[in-house]
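User: Second chain of the day. Same drill as before.
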Amino acid sequence: MPKAPEHILLSRTDSIGDVMLTLPLAGLLKERFPGARITFLGRRYTAPVLRCCAHVDQVLTLEELEAQGDAGAVRTLRELNAQVVVHVFPQRQVAGWCKKAGIPTRIGTSHRWWHWTTCDQRVAFSRRKSDLHEAQLNVKLLAPLGITGIPDRQALASLAGFTPPVADERVRALVRPGVRNIILHPLSKGSAVEWGLDHFAALIERLDPARYHVIVTGTTAEAERYRKELPLQLPQVSDAGGSLDLTQLIALIGASDALVAASTGPLHIAAACGIRAVGLYSPKRPIHPGRWAPIGTDAHALVAEGLDPDGDPVVHIRAISPDAVMHLLQW
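Assistant: Same format as last time:
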């Protein structure tokens, strides 16, 4: 590029975990272009995550643009006056809008056919076949901006710029003083292979009420499922299922000591908050921790030993014992 961009648009309109692993891009861009403004285009439900990132100057949602119709979306994107858009998550409609808006530098992957008609900079790499972490793969898209080195995971974690919001009264009431507050997020809305409610029940029963307080989280629908199988009546347990919005959940995670979950958004939020994040994984590609492990100063990815990496992911993750998780909660 002839000169440093003044305004960069990052587009990732998928899930919370994917967005969390894209935040280091914003930090990396701020390092390289200190005066640049960064707008992040995401979905409405991920906006609370984006507002916790110090490197994101403006949040724009896909739903806002869709509500305006094609002409309105193009007009809004043109008025941003961004010099660069990075399509971290390929979205044909967004790519078309950005071209019509006249954003000069439009970066996408080379393997989406519509990027050949909508992007002027196309980067060739395969996520599925790579040994790199998702957060590192995202960095490859910055090569047209002169950023060609791939930082390690810890360096990327330090670039997330993530600070949870201040806990409100509801969140403060959930956190008990004098014990370790452990969040268990047992379900995933189908986004990850799950450990099993029986394993979470066994883990809860191992957590001494004198030392631990367990907070179970999930959506209203997930709570209806887990309430049938988890020992929520035990004195060390609080049930927060369906009672928190995403901003409150992020605040609760930041105010707690640890979180246990499969490869979900809350796990990646916990890692970015700097609390102990214990992830439960299968070694099978492309869902293995080499690609999707949480990144943070106290992040851990558990995989049972001695498994065939080509085997059944459900068998893999269920082979992780409650004792193995318990070991990581005894620091």
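The mean pLDDT is 96.

User: Great, on to the next one.
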